[in-house]
Amino acid sequence: MQNDLLLKALNHEIVPRPPIWLMRQAGRYLPEYQKIRQEVGFLDLCNNPELAVEVSLQPYKRFNTDAIIVFSDILLPAQKMGLELEFTEDGPRINNLISNEADIKKLQIPLANEETYPTLTAINMLKKIAGEKVPIIGFSGAPWTLFCYMTEGYSSTNFYKAKKFLYTNPQAAHQLLSKITNTLFLYLTMQVNSGASVLQIFDTWAGILSLEDYKTFALPYLKHLISDLMPLKVPIILYANNASHLLPKLSMLKVAALSLDWRYSLQDVRDNFGTSIGIQGNLDPAILLTDQATVREKTKQMIQSIKNWQVGYICNLGHGVLPPTPIENVYAMVDTVFEFANEVVMA
Predict the structure, then answer these.
(1) DSSP 264-294
(2) CA distance 152 to 154
(3) Rounded to an integer, what distance in angstroms lies between the CA atom of residue 19 and that of residue 5?
(4) 174, 252, 239: which is closest to 213 by C-alpha?
(5) What is the radius of gyration, based on Cα positions, of the chain?
(6) Side-chain half-sphere CA neighbours of 320 within 13 A
(7) Which of 25, 47, 49 is nearest to 126 (CA)?
(8) How would you write the pLDDT of the chain (347 residues) with one tens digit per residue?
(9) Domain boundaries along the sequence of the chain
(10) Where would I find the beta strands (DSSP E) of the chain?
(11) Residue 89: exposed, middle, or buried by beta-carbon count in 10 A (0-12, 13-18, 19+)?
């Protein structure tokens, strides 16, 4: 592989500069993406391998990032399990919510093949096109995060329906989480078999649970999923949003790196958990809404805040790129990381 910086960082090897890729690397901030979306719906785009590949490559061609993440969505497995998924101007919406054990029994654990998941075809195509240049990242949501959407129906700041489900029918909650976990295992396994050399699991709504509830309902299934993926021998990155209270438990999982939101001090995390686990992040995406000088300064500060960034550190945002982000500010962040290596050598 011509550029294996990401793999080296995840393997805790010394690197000359931090590898960089961005969550929501492709999307609405790119005019070339907007052009495609004017003619194709979001779900149709996710399920069209040729277009998904084109969109996945757009930011790589622009910014020369150190990885390509396949364009898809974490809720596709929920749809394949039997739920009615649509994307509105307000975000994803599931129309037939899971509310009881009878609903759970109706859900299937779908076969993970290219007919069920066109994303697998897209990964295979990306591997052939760019797999010798940079790693291809596959991904999924975590069991708990999918549970939230499947029982709430849409994005929420509190997910009251999902939490009520946990508390009023814990047995059914465990049944649903188990079914989701089995589905995600098959899906992620086939992503690796199709050509993904890195996996990222997004537990976007981890932070809405208390530590005790997370230990009871979310952590066992996440741990089970990660452990079952270990034989594939690919590094796994775990993103858990707003989850500082969960970090001691999350750091014990068999992942290569924890992807952190902007609320963390990266050096504090390194001081507490050492270099045995990598860290990824964690620039606030809102900084990319400012100006190039600010982006450059904040990016430098972020990297320099980690004393031993040469081992096990990946530069990224603390969440996904925001739709109104100016393209020149993304260039500023990426270029700053590239220039950082030269400055270190000259120093």
Answers:
(1) S-HHHHHHHHGGGSEEEEEE-GGGGGS-HHH
(2) 6
(3) 6
(4) 174
(5) 19
(6) 14
(7) 49
(8) 899 999 999 999 999 999 999 999 999 999 999 999 999 999 999 999 999 999 999 999 999 999 999 999 999 999 999 999 999 888 899 999 999 999 999 999 999 999 999 999 999 999 999 999 999 999 999 999 999 999 999 888 899 999 999 999 999 999 999 999 999 999 999 999 999 999 999 999 999 999 999 999 999 999 999 999 999 999 999 999 999 999 999 999 999 999 999 999 999 999 999 988 999 999 999 999 999 999 999 999 999 999 999 999 999 999 999 999 999 999 999 999 999 876 654 44
(9) 20-274
(10) 68-69, 85-88, 91-94, 136-141, 198-203, 236-240, 257-259, 278-283, 313-317
(11) exposed
- 258-281 exposure pattern, b = at least 16 Cβ within 10 A, e = fewer: bbbbeebebeebbeebeeebbbbb
Residues 21, 25, 30: CA angle, nearest 5 degrees: 135
Tokens of 35: 């052009």
Q: How many CB atoms lie within 10 A of CB 284?
A: 16
Strand partners, 178: none
Strand pairing class (85-88; 91-94): antiparallel
CA angle (317, 252, 257) in 5-degree steps: 30
Residues serving a catalytic function are 24, 28, 37, 73, 149
Closest CA to 176 of 95, 250, 106, 75: 106
- 20-274: CATH topology is TIM Barrel (3.20.20)
99: tokens are: 């509310």
Q: Report whether 288 contacts 22 (CB < 8 A).
A: no
Name the pTM for this structure: 0.97
As a residue count, the chain comes to: 347
Beta bridge partners of 87: 92
| Whether 202 contacts 74, CB under 8 Å | yes
Both tokens of residue 130? 């760019």
Reduce the DSSP state of residue 304 to 3 states and report it.
helix
Record the tokens describing residue 60, joined without a space.
Answer: 């790589």
